[in-house]
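Tutorial, part two.
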Amino acid sequence: MGESDQSRSLFRADFPQLRGEVLAELVRLFSSGKDPVGLAEAAVELVADATGAKSVFVYFWDPDTERLVLRTVTRIDLALTLGSIQIRLGEGITGWSALHRKPVLINESPMTDPRFMAVDGVDENDYSSVLVVPIFDDALLYGVFAMYSSDDRTFGQEELAISEEVGLLLGSGLKRAETVRELELQSATARFLSDLPPASSSSLPAAIRESAKRILTLLDADACIIDYTSWIAPTSEPIAVAERTAEAVEEPRVWLTHSKQVARETEQRYEHAGYDHISSSLGFGIARGALTCYSRRKFTQEDITRLGILATQVGVLVGNMGSVPSGAAQLVALLASDREEQIQESLKFLGWRGGVFAPILVQVKRIGSDLETFGRLIQESAYLDLGPDTLITQSGTLVVLLVQNEKLIRSHEITSRVTDWISDLEARVGLSADVGIGQATNETISVRTSLYQARTALAWASFSSTRRAPQVVDYDSIRLVFELPRLINDLAPEIQGLHGELTPVALHDAQFGTHLLETLEAYALHGGSAASTADALFIHRNTLRQRLGRIHALSGREFDQSSHWPEMLLAVRLLKLDLLQGSFRTTTPRNLEVESPESQY
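Running the prediction step on this input gives:
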């Protein structure tokens, strides 16, 4: 027996012990907290040591491209870029092993195997033995590792057995590692704001620098750009860029620029290089800028979801900073406080220098332009239309204006001027907003009272507006009726019941063009008086009786002196609004047998 055969025999005799050592070390690796690539590389190195392999190739399965992608090459000096080799399922010996989820053992002349496929950059003449093992579990393929040797018959059944066992265990380990990694990412994403160091909340530049750097890591991206847009700011806000470069792989390079052109050139550099990219608006509701990330790999759906969550949190963070630190907090104190002195302190922080003003609150519902254009125009037009001393501040979608134009205040033309101003913005930038105007402070003799009036007027505007049309309400116009919504709230249950009963009447009008709702509206308006209703509608009393009979047949509702006419009137008018807005279609409901009317009532 030759020397090599003796060593081979000894190796086989010691193999159970070696197998135990390999598996024990593998268990230690699984608890080491390595990332999936690091875990696979370490595990395969372990097998290579035990089997005498010369070089090891590790491929990971990419479900997006449906390719096996080279992620690790060890024990050999090759001019290969990781990711440069991509193999389809069934392609070559490696692809065949992945497709069939079976190991392949070839102990001489692998190039003569019919499954063999040449790979650019790899000289297969150096290898005489190959052992290819898939990494998978019951549900998923994770990848393949291939071990090569320059000698014939390097790998035997024992090497095959332990490699196959490690492949299965590695599949289970990778699944756990990915699960742990995903849970860690979900936790880090949810805690993103709370995990930021206190120093990063001190200013807008510090906040976006730290945010860009952390998001780059959480998404495993190559570059992330935070382009925050403030509506109302005297200067352009900084743009943060975090990127991995050849000189900064471990610790990303993070830098700021105020130039939109420089930021765009950076984006184009990655786009032209073929990087995948995803983007999300900062904040929620109306966008406050964008968060964009680039990567050599294709982003997953989980990455896209995670980016949206992070962008919302960054929007909240920077939206409370802007050009004036803690401006949003001061605005909250301004509108929520019951103490006159605290309100005045907040006003001074926001730039008020004393004097009479009229408060205007603008709740933005929709804009048809970019934020920069909107922010510039709202300032320019406010100074032009309401006076150059107008103080403007903003938080989220709420804009607060303090009009200090004494001439305009004395003329009592603020409401008409504000209405014209909002209409102009609607035409120029597609603005839709609810607006509340309070009395000037020289009338209320209280800053707190004037602001309360503006809030009340804004609430009324929001209560009575539509999604698209701007609505301007001044407190004087609702001063005597501003408690009406509370009264309506008390009447709502009965009105809702009447609305349901009278819906068949509305459907009848919609299908046949009759005027039953109009008749019932007049009848309720005149308190159930047939004579007054017939006179108001210019119809004969018999025609009125016919219509009321038809309404009764459709709704089942009796009309007598005990009827609650105010509630009836409101229910009818709500139904007329439904008809006007197209809420009812001209199809016949299943529970309503409609006869063609004998006349157009």
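Residues 157-190 form the longest helix (34 residues). In part three we will examine how such features are distributed along the chain.
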